Amino acid sequence: MNVRPQKLLTEQEVQTGLRLVITEGLATEAMTTLTGGAFLVAMALLLGASNLQIGLLAAWPTFTNIFQLLSIWLVRRYNNRRAISVVCALLARLPLVIIGVMPFFTKGSIQFLIIFLFFYYLFASIAGLSWNAWMKDLVPGNQLGTYFSRRSSYMQILNVILSLSLAFIIDYVKDNYPAYELTTYSIMFTVAGVIGIMGAFVLSKVPEPQSYLARENIFQLFKRPLKDGNFRKLLLFNSAWVFALNIAIPFFTVYMLKHLGLSMTYVIGLTVVSQLCSIFTIRMWGRFSDRYSNKTILAIAAPVYIICIIAWCFVGIYSRFMVNLGLLVFIHIFTGIATAGINLSLTNIGLKLAPNEHAIVYLSTKNIITAVFSSVAPLIGGILADYFGNRSLVINAEWAGPTANKVLHLVSLHDMNFLFLIGAVLAFISLEFLLRVKEVGEVEKDVVVRIMRSSIKNNLKEYFLIGNLISWHDQLWGLFKKKSP
C-alpha cells in the first residue's frame, strides 16, 4: 500500500480522490450513526449513567482535540498526512469492536464504555486534524462549500435511512425481548467498528498532494495563529458559541427519553426530521457561502438555532402528547435548517482564514482552544442538571370568573429546562463576537437575506419565516443599547 504524498496531482487523480473521500465519508457516517447520538445516550442510560457521566461522554469528542498537538508533531516528523490519518483511523475504530464484543464475555459497565470511547475519540481527533489539512490541499478552494455540502448531504441521507431502521429494531427488541437490548447495542458497536476499518482502507487510496510545514519550534508555531488578530477573533466567537451550545445540546436526548418518555422511534424520527431539513438546505447554504461569505451565513443561521433552544424550555409544559410532539417537530425542522448552515460555515471559515503554509497549525489551534470550552460545558451542564433536578420556576396566567376558571402555563422551568435557557442566553451573547470577525468577500447580512428570500420564495415559502426571524438578534441588541446609559 503506497501512501506517500505526490508533488503534483493530475485532474483525474484529484477527481478520483474526491469520489473516494465521499465513499469514506459514508463509511464514517454509518459508523458514527451506529455508535453515537441517541443510541449512545440510550445505551449509557441502560448501563445506569448519571447526568455527569452523560456529560463526560459528550465531552470526550471535543476534549480529545487537545491531543492534536500529537498530530502536528507527527506531520512535522513524517510529512505524510495520509499515513497519519489512515493509521490513526484504524487505531480509533478498534476500540469500537472491543466495546461490541466485551459484553459477550463479561458484564457491561458504564465505566468500561467511557474508557474505551476515550481512546476512540483520541485517535479520531489526531486523524481528523491531518485529514482536514489534507483536504484543504486536495479540494479546490473555490469548491469547498459546494463539495462538502454535497458530501454532507449524502452522509445525512445514509444517516436518515440507517437511524430509522435501527430505531425500529431497538424498539422491537425492547418491547419483545428486553433481555437482549444491551446485546443489540453491542452488535451495533461491532458492526460499526468493522465498517469503520473498511472506510480507513478506502481512505488510504485517496492521493495526497505534497505539503511543507515550517521547521519552527512547535510552540512558536502556535503563537502564529494567536498573533493573527482576525483569527483570534474567530477563536473567541467559536469558543463562546460551542460552550453555550454544549451546556444544553447533550441533554436534549436525555430529556426526551427520560422526562418525556418517548420511544427510540420517536426520538430518531425527530432526528430524521432535522436531518432531512439539513439535506434539503445544505446545498443552498453551500452555494451562498461560496458566493458571499461564511460569516454572513452564520449571522443568518445562528439566531434561528438560538430560538430553537429557547423553544425547548416550553416542551413539556402541557400534558397533551400531541402538543409537545408538534412543538418538538417545529424545533427539529428549524434546528436542521440552521445546523446545516452553521456547521458548514464554521468548518469553511476556519479553512478560509488559515494560510495554506500553516493550515494544520491554524486548524489545530482552533480545535484545541475550542475543545477546552466545548468539553467543559457538558460537564457543567451535568452538574447543573443535578442541581436543578429538585427545583422549578413556574409562571402561570390565571382567569377566574363566575362560570369558568382557566390557567394558562406561560413558563415552567425545571430540571434540564434551566440548562436550555442558560445555553440560549450564552449563545445569544456569543454572537456579538462574530461581528468582529472579518472575512474576504463578506457581504452585509441584510443583502444576502433579500437575495435568499428572492431565490427561494417560489419553492420554499417557509423560508419567509426564517427571513423574519434572522433579524431578531440585531433588533434585540438595539433595544438593549437604547436602554443602556
Automatic annotation (TrEMBL):
The keyword Transmembrane applies. The chain crosses the membrane at residues 21-48, 54-75, 87-106, 112-134, 154-173, 185-203, 234-257, 263-285, 297-319, 325-346, 367-389, 416-435. It holds the Pfam family MFS_1. InterPro entries: MFS, MFS_trans_sf, Sugar_transport-like. Keywords: Membrane, Transmembrane, Transmembrane helix. Gene3D superfamilies: MFS general substrate transporter like domains (1.20.1250.20). GO terms for molecular function: transmembrane transporter activity. CDD domains: MFS. This is MFS transporter.
